[in-house]
Amino acid sequence: MIEARDGVAAIEGAFARAKAAGRGALMPYVMAGDPDVATTEAVLAAVLGAGADIVELGIPYGDPLADGPTIAASAQRALDAGTTIDAALATIAPARALAKSDAPIVVFSYVNPILQYGLERFADALVAAGVAGAIVPDVPVEENRMLRQAFEKRGLALPLLIAPTTPPARAALIARASQGFIYVVSRLGVTGARREPDFAWIAATVDRLREVTSTPLAVGFGIATPDHVARVLASADGAIVASALIDAIAGLWLHAAADRTTSFVRALAAATPRG
């Protein structure tokens, strides 16, 4: 095992800095390897440089249960380009150097590729890449002991998801177990940018969760525009934007993709201040 880091503190620190500045945290998602790793390095650097507080880096997988058509297609393009876990993680250091940023990066993956890679090896690879933690949406809280132990030994965060169908008692259990932040799923179904979020439900859910946890609450699924970001951050601590950014840069490569990313993320970041 390589030297541990404190990913939980890094994530919570990013939320705290945003709050101290009178903002919510902006959390864009980038699919590693779409359309190739060189473009990912440029896009990841652009996201880091354009105002992201925390970045989710997707590890491409062929059976992404939580992801809608946009992210699934993005993952397939990355797989077709030959992107592996190692190649995905290797984009981080060059992107950080370009952006001169140490904002926390959290990977998004699924349990099957992690187990195929090797759990302990995967956790070591995250630490070596400077990652703060990982979201693994297809492992329920009752079954994540091995994953949690591997991560805790290395100081890696394991944020968990709460869905609209999660009963209150179970939501409280998940909230207590989640590390770094809690991923609040804004709606039923999979990710995607084509349906308007239910902001009243989001606000009510965030209010209920605040009664049982002080862990930062970040809302994702369907958050696509600056207006969405502003409305989410009226109650939540973070706004996660995924499919909309992927749609915005689809078909673009290298500098064209990076330039489009910069303008897109800056517009989102401009909506993060609270009134």
Q: Describe it for me?
A:
The chain is α/β, with parallel strands linked by helices and 275 residues long. The protein has a single domain (7-269), classed as TIM Barrel (Alpha-Beta Barrel), CATH 3.20.20. Helix content is 47%, strand content 12%. It is built from 13 helices and eight strands. The chain has helices spanning 7-20, 37-49, 69-80, 85-89, 92-99, 111-117, 119-128, 145-153, 168-177, 199-210, 226-232, 243-249, 254-269; strands at 25-31, 55-58, 105-108, 133-135, 160-162, 182-185, 217-220, 238-241. Strands 4-3-2-1-8-7-6-5 form an eight-stranded parallel β-sheet. α9 links the parallel β5 (160-162) and β6. α2 packs parallel to α5. The model is unreliable at 189-193 (pLDDT under 50).
What is the fold named in CATH at topology level? TIM Barrel
Tally of discrete structural domains? 1
> How many β strands by DSSP?
8
Radius of gyration from CA coordinates: 17 Å
Gross morphology: globular
Question: Would you tell me the structural class of the helices and strands?
Answer: alpha/beta
The CATH class, by name, is Alpha Beta
Order of helices and strands: HEHEHHHEHHEHEHEHEHEHH
CATH homolog superfamily: Aldolase class I
* Major sheet summary line: 8 strands, parallel
The averaged pLDDT comes out at 93
Helix content: 40-55%
Percent of sequence in beta strands: 5-15%
SS summary, helix count:
13
- What is the first-to-last residue Cα distance? 46 Å
What is the CATH architecture descriptor?
Alpha-Beta Barrel
Low-confidence stretches: 189-193
The side-by-side strand order for the widest beta sheet comes to 4-3-2-1-8-7-6-5
